[in-house]
Specification:
Blueprint: H1 2-20, H2 22-32, H3 34-61, H4 73-90, H5 98-103, H6 106-122, H7 125-146, H8 160-186
Helix pairs in contact: 1-2, 1-3, 1-7, 2-3, 4-6, 4-8, 6-7
Length: 191
């Protein structure tokens, strides 16, 4: 469990610098440059992600059950993920989609929905910890972004077709996860 916690702390920690210490981020970029900052940020993020995934896999081998998920949680998680995945896809378009404009930051909303879906449907200590940490981080990041003024790119005109593309790709990924991909990637079949 310690590898999992270290990885989670690294991954969430580096992603929280912009929320908790934006001046430190700016000062570091001024001192070492933007590309070296991105390189360090990426390496720490990747190390955190790898340790989190590896540690979570180890924790799943000897799970500690915190609660038995309610019978409705699984179906509720399916519905939440059907919304979360198009939001995630919408966050990758260079011009903001109408979806992105409506929720302000679709990736953070996607992470929030993912976390709620999984905290209810998993019930193990590692699963609840993973989901709860991402939920708290996503809320903190959303509040941090709400406090900032909108940038020029976020008020530029959107291309309506991008909304439909985001929904189509998101639902296709959702269906792939539902029928096979979740089992292959995570080792837990959904159906």
């Amino acid at each position: 469990m310690s590898i999992f916690i270290i990885g989670l702390a690294l991954f969430i920690g580096v992603h929280s610098i912009y929320i908790l210490a934006p001046n430190v981020r700016s000062a570091t970029i001024d001192r070492i440059g933007y590309n070296p900052w991105r390189g360090i940020y990426s390496l720490v993020s990747l190390a955190g992600l790898v340790l989190t995934i590896y540690g979570y896999g180890l924790a799943r081998q000897d799970p500690v059950l915190l609660f038995e998920p309610p019978p409705w949680a699984r179906d509720f998680a399916f519905v939440l993920m059907a919304v979360a995945l198009p939001l995630l896809v919408a966050s990758f378009f260079p011009k903001p989609t109408r979806i992105g404009r409506f929720v302000r930051h679709p990736m953070l909303m996607s992470v929030t929905l993912w976390a709620v879906a999984h905290v209810l449907a998993v019930g193990t200590l590692a699963g609840v910890l993973l989901s709860a940490v991402f939920f708290v981080w996503a809320l903190a990041a959303r509040f941090s972004l709400i406090a900032r003024p909108m940038t020029a790119s976020s008020v530029s005109p959107s291309a309506p077709i991008n909304d439909w593309i985001a929904v189509a790709i998101g639902l296709a990924v959702w269906a792939a996860l539902l029928f096979a991909l979740h089992d292959w990637l995570i080792g837990m079949p959904l159906l």
